[in-house]
Amino acid sequence: MDFQETALQTTFPRLLLKHASARPTATAMREKEFGIWQALSWADLQQMVEQIACGLHQAGLRRDDHMVVVGSNRPRLYATMLAVQALGAVPIPLYQDAVAGECVFPINNADVAFAFAEDQEQVDKLLEIREQCPQLAHVYFDDPRGLRDYDEPGLASMDELIASGKVFAKLHAAFFREQIEQAGPDDIAAMFFTSGTTGNPKGVVHTHDSLLDRARAGADFDKLTENEEVLAYLPPAWIGQNIFSYAQWLACGYVVNCPESSATVTIDLKEVGPTYYFAPPRVFEGLLTSVMIRMEDAGALKRRMFHAFMALARRVGPDRMDGKPLGLADRLLYGLGDWMVYGPLRNNLGLSRVRVAYTAGEAIGPDLFQFYRSIGVNLKQLYGSTETAVFVCLQPDNAARADTVGMPIAGVEIKVADNGEILVKSPGLLKEYFKNPAATAEVLTADGWYHTSDAGFLDAHGHLKIIDRVKDVGRIKGGANDGAMFAPKYVENKLKFFPYIKEVVAYGDGRDKVCVMINIDMDAVGNWAERRNLAYAGYTDLAQKPEVYALIKDCVEKVNADLAADELLAGSQISRFLVLHKELDADDGELTRTNKVRRGFIADKYLPLVDGLYGGKSEQFIETVVKFEDGRSGSVSATLKIEDTQTFAPVKAAA
């Protein structure tokens, strides 16, 4: 069946009706419950959506109203979003790991009276802020465990909502379809709140057309069909997950699989064997780190075989993936390696059936990128944002490179402003920022160009290269590198290419040198320490070990050597570093909910450390307030060592 026509000039609920009509018994979603995968057909999904929509209508949800949904990827969460859209109302997914206080602004800003909450944790969160959000009258929960004795006005189960909707649907058989037919492609389909790194989050308003146009453009680019299998494990509030497991799901009609829990994702990945997969770089880093840890613990013969075949894969694998010709000997050896190493490795990672895999959100290290492509995983990069409905640039199968984010796809125009900022024109652009015309005017020009705030350029092959955020690109002031360009994200990402480094915060704009604060990767460094019989009592203790500092210093100096060969950024070499005593955490305000570093907030919070780095100190005491998962607060303190590093003279390019 050709879904090209159905994905254009339509709405999400209409696509649901088309799939349910054309393939009623085909599987739309699977959910793992109690260790068993349960399938939901398109016909069953349509019935569930109709009953939820009728129940919500009876409860008072009307066209243009807003309803928040907060929880993990679950069939009923997706069905609720479709039901809300069927009534002409607007679903707003919120991050399930956000603390209660972070939900107040979105709910009040959008005047939300209805909410879907997955379980007791999310119900407690919404009830906690009810006094601050008095209009929040209806809260529906999916998982009843722990909620039996709750007696709150407006709190009801999804089972109750569905039961009332079922009765209404029988009495008003035409109601559901009549409501769907009233909506058009230019109507508002969803709102996504930004992470709010510099203030209150902004509600990004998207229409059915803007989301589905980009979903279809991405599907056409990678020839996606109804036969794909997708694992939906990232937060539904993040537009990347929403595009992959909602917009493209309905545009293409493939199967979305919902893991049992965040703890079982790795196991579920192997069981599902997705054909279309998306993960941010840190997930790919984690998968590779787990592999390397296991290999270090393997026998000597197995390690030698692994490293020998991986050397072959690094040499010929990327060319093979790009469709370039290989010699007979290399083809035979790679085939043997695929049977003995690469195939079992892909299977162990859960990537044995992947036809297309994407990563985005942060730069991915060249070594990491080439590793996956060398073992036969078609890993590519994309570029986009919440405001652009994700798909701006994608990498063709035979032109995937670690140093670019792809080429503009159908419908997209890109130009570079005089200050280096990337401007985008696309059918997938946001309609507006909700109740924020000033912010809308800042990012959307009168002639339809969107200001991305990213600095970059198009290379000679038409691929887009991103350097950093425009506002973050600065200059070194004073010292030997006075006037040199400083791109903190570029420096941070180069350090994060090492498996021992999880997070980095770099400073240097307006200063005479670059200094960084580093989070070690507890799994990778912990395993490294155990293999050396290096005892430690926890993260803080391990992070301050002299041996760990020597390990991290070696990584920093390797980055400096690389930067020395970069004419533009040779002045961004790192002069001093320290290893933080705690992991940066979104609950402590140090990261956004999409795990982006809040550099300014961290500079204020850790001002003594910044002063120590730039004041020439060899150590600095710090005490930090932290929030625990149960809501309690505590503190972590330590005296952190500060190390100087070797920098290198810039390498002159050959004439």
Describe the protein's architecture and organization.
- By secondary structure, the protein is an alpha/beta fold.
- Among the domains are: 12-205, Rossmann fold (3-Layer(aba) Sandwich), CATH 3.40.50; 473-644, GMP Synthetase, Chain A, domain 3.
- The chain contains 21 helices and 28 strands.
- A five-stranded parallel β-sheet has the order 4-3-5-6-7, sandwiched between helices.
- The longest helix is centred in the middle third of the chain and has 22 residues, at 300-321.
- The model is unreliable at 1-7 (pLDDT under 50).
Features:
alpha/beta, 655 residues, five-stranded parallel β-sheet, 21 helices, Rossmann fold, disordered N terminus, single chain, 21% strand
User: How many strands appear in the DSSP assignment?
Assistant: 28
Task: Give the strand order of the largest sheet, numbering strands 1, 2, ... along the chain.
Answer: 4-3-5-6-7
Biggest β-sheet: count, sense, barrel? 5 strands, parallel
- As a percent range, the share of strand residues is 15-25%
Q: Helix segment count?
A: 21
Mean pLDDT: 91
Estimated helix fraction: 25-40%
- Straight-line distance between termini: 57 Å
CATH homology superfamily name of the domain at 12-205: ANL, N-terminal domain
Rg estimate, integer Å: 26 Å
Q: Class by helix and strand content?
A: alpha/beta
Anisotropy-based shape: globular
CATH class of the domain at 12-205: Alpha Beta
CATH topology of the domain at 12-205: Rossmann fold
Q: Name the CATH architecture of the domain at 12-205.
A: 3-Layer(aba) Sandwich
Unreliable residue stretches: 1-7
